[in-house]
Design a protein that fits this description.
Number of strands of chain B: 11
Number of strands of chain A: 2
Largest sheet of chain B: 4 strands, mixed
Helix content of chain B: 25-40%
Oligomer: heterodimer
Strand order of the largest sheet of chain A: 1-2
Number of helices of chain B: 8
Strand content of chain A: under 5%
Helix content of chain A: 55-70%
Order of helices and strands of chain A: EHHEHH
Strand content of chain B: 25-35%
Strand order of the largest sheet of chain B: 6-7-11-10
Structural class of chain B: alpha+beta
Number of helices of chain A: 4
Largest sheet of chain A: 2 strands, antiparallel
Largest interface: A-B, 40 and 57 residues
Shape of chain B: elongated
Radius of gyration of chain A: 18 Å
Shape of chain A: elongated
């Protein structure tokens, strides 16, 4: 059985994403990813959600030739969109349940 | 294999300037990028577009491709000429390019590799999969089997290997949450560690319950007289049924809270809300109609009183 919900250290995060520490710092500065714990850059801890957005952000940056400022804004909007899509779907189901004749 | 016309894919003429090809690539990348456009179709289109740009942006690669295009572009079944070897493909790529691309420029091309700037070996690719989870499974830790494919590079060629294992889904996972399973992604290059497996949790829509954070909602249909006079109803929860008291004079849409019968969360169990829905009987007998009539006369109730107050 494999264990799950593990967090990632700065080294693990950099290695998994194929980025240097300075790029990681930039990603945090532009809020592309946010550490879930750690006061200083050295002991930052990231979760699986950060890993997902880092992957998407790096692809978008390379493929669309964006700078980190644009990537930060884009990722922000994409996160918001995901959240709204999910919320909209939930509310739609609830509304249908409430309106449909039994 | 099929000959890929990279010019056609990008919608440019074969003698187009690199700057124009770049403009075409940018437009299509914006339109089809899989991180902006969900769906397999956009992903497939983007792969083609990215591959075409990878070849046409590089003078040497473009020249080689143009040579081959003269040779094989008109044939249905393309094979590189005997003894063909690319002089331009010296970089190590290992990505998701087509067989056609690999047959010309050799295997091992990777998009993500291009931005790699660290000085250490790259760990294996992470793999992300969707993990459907039933609401009932989130109440306590649950072990679930997963099966997925990981990309492996063998002799410069990419293929996929099927993998299956059991993972523990911790109690209280929420929709959209991501779980990292360490070391279960694609193998790393050289001595580098393997990538990780990421599970994207999707709560399967339940036939009875709706989810709101860590709370659950269940719609409880009640008859008009039940709402008026009050009643006891049996309400399903994730773990068996409970009795619920509906107070006299309850309204449609009113929520009754049942503590601790929601989903598990870090701060304990959420609550279950029973949402009352007043439902009319589909058919009315003459006797019942007479009773409604009597009620209409005696109730002296105007549900639209607010409207008549308006000027």
């Amino acid at each position: 059985m494999s264990s799950s919900t593990l967090k990632l250290s700065v080294d693990e995060f950099c290695s998994a994403q194929g980025v240097s520490r300075s790029i990681l710092v930039e990603m945090v500065e532009y809020e592309v990813v946010l550490p879930v714990a750690g006061q200083s850059e050295r002991d930052w801890v990231f979760d699986a959600v950060a890993a997902h957005w880092a992957r998407r952000a790096l692809r978008l940056k390379a493929d669309l030739e964006l700078d980190w400022l644009a990537v930060g804004m884009l990722v922000d909007l994409l996160r918001e969109r995901d959240e709204l899509v999910r919320e909209n779907e939930q509310l739609r189901v609830r509304l249908e349940r409430f309106l449909a004749g039994e | 294999m099929e000959f890929k016309d990279y010019y056609k894919i990008l919608g440019v003429e074969a003698d187009a300037e690199t700057a124009d090809i770049k403009t075409a690539y940018r437009k299509l990348a914006r339109k089809y990028h899989p991180d902006l456009n969900p769906g397999e179709e956009a992903e497939a289109r983007f792969k083609e577009v990215a591959e075409a740009w990878e070849v046409l942006k590089d003078k040497e690669r473009r020249a080689e491709y143009d040579e081959l295009r003269k040779y094989g572009g008109r044939r249905e079944d393309f094979r590189p000429p005997p003894g063909w070897q690319s002089g331009a493909g010296a970089e190590q790529f290992s990505g998701d390019f087509s067989d056609f691309f690999n047959s010309i420029f050799g295997g091992g091309f990777q998009r993500e590799e291009a931005q790699w700037s660290g000085g250490f070996e790259r760990s294996g690719q992470d793999v992300e999969i969707e993990m459907p989870v039933f609401l009932e499974e989130t109440v306590s830790d649950t072990s679930k089997p997963v099966a997925y494919e990981i990309p492996v590079i063998e002799q410069g060629r990419r293929s996929y290997q099927r993998k299956s294992l059991k993972v523990t889904i911790p109690a209280g996972v929420a929709d959209g949450e991501r779980i990292r399973v360490k070391g279960q992604g694609a193998p790393g290059s050289g001595n580098a560690p393997p990538g990780d497996l990421y599970l994207h949790i999707r709560l399967v829509p339940h036939p009875v319950f709706d989810v709101e954070g860590h709370n659950l909602l269940v719609t409880v249909p009640v008859a008009p007289w039940e709402a008026a006079l009050g009643t006891k109803v049996v309400v399903p929860t994730l773990e068996g049924k409970i009795n619920l008291t509906v107070a006299a004079g309850s309204q449609s849409g009113q929520k009754l809270r049942v503590r601790g019968k929601g989903l598990a969360g870090k701060a304990g169990r959420g609550d279950l809300y029973a949402v009352l829905k007043v439902v009319m009987p589909p058919e009315t007998s003459d006797a019942a109609k007479a009773l409604w009539q009597e009620l209409a006369e005696k109730a002296a109730f105007d549900p639209r009183a607010q409207w008549s107050e308006q000027p």
